[in-house]
Amino acid sequence: MLIFKFLKQFVKYGTLTLIDSRGKSFTFVGTSAPKLTLCLHSKSIEHRLFLAPMLTLGEGYMDGDITIKEGDIYQLLLFCAKNDNCTSGLLKTLISRLTILRNFYHRYNPIHKSRKNVAHHYDLSESLYR
Q1: Which of 94, 108, 61 is CA-nearest to residue 80?
Q2: Residue 127 vs residues 117, 123, 130: alpha-carbon distances, Å
Q3: Are strands 66-70 and 35-40 parallel, antiparallel or unpaired?
C-alpha cells in the first residue's frame, strides 16, 4: 500500500502502529514518545489517507472509520504536528503538488459537464408542479 511507504518517510517523532482493514499491522518508529496505535476499518480510508492525509484523518476519526487503540486524540494531534515539522522540503513539495493535482481533478468542470449538471438539477418535469 502506497500510504505505508509514505509513512516510513514521514514518521520521525514517536511510534505509530497502523492496523489495516484486513487486520495486518504496520509499525513506523521515530525517535521518542508518543506511542500510538490506529485501526483503519475500511479499505477506502487507506486510499483517502494517501490523497488527503490530514482531512481524512479527522473525517475518518469522526465517522468511526479510524479508531485509536493506543493513545488518545491529543497524542495523535501532537504526533501529526511534530512529524509535519520534521518533514523534509522535498516531501512537502511532493505532497503539495499532489494536492494541487487532486484539487484540479475534483474541480474540473468543462462546459459540457456544466451543462449536464445544470440540466440534471433544473430541468424538472411539469408533473412536479401539479
Answers
A1: 61
A2: 21, 12, 5
A3: antiparallel
- Verify cis geometry, omega within 30 degrees of 0, for the bond prior to 53: no
Condensed to tens digits (0 to 9), the pLDDT of residues 16-59 reads: 999 999 999 999 888 877 899 999 999 888 888 877 788 889 99
Write the DSSP string, 110-125: -HHHHHHHHHHHH---
Phi, psi of 15 (to 5 degrees): -125, 130
The beta-carbon contacts of 41-50 under 8 Å, at least 24 apart in sequence, are 41/65, 41/66, 41/67, 45/21, 46/1, 46/3, 46/20, 46/21, 47/3, 49/3, 50/2, 50/3, 50/6
- The CATH code of the domain at 2-86 is 3.30.1050.10
- Smallest CA-to-CA distance from 15 within 58, 92, 56, 76 is with 76
Reported pTM:
0.65
Query: Domain ranges in the chain?
Result: 2-86, 88-123
In this structure, the number of other CB atoms found within 10 A of the CB of residue 99 comes to: 14
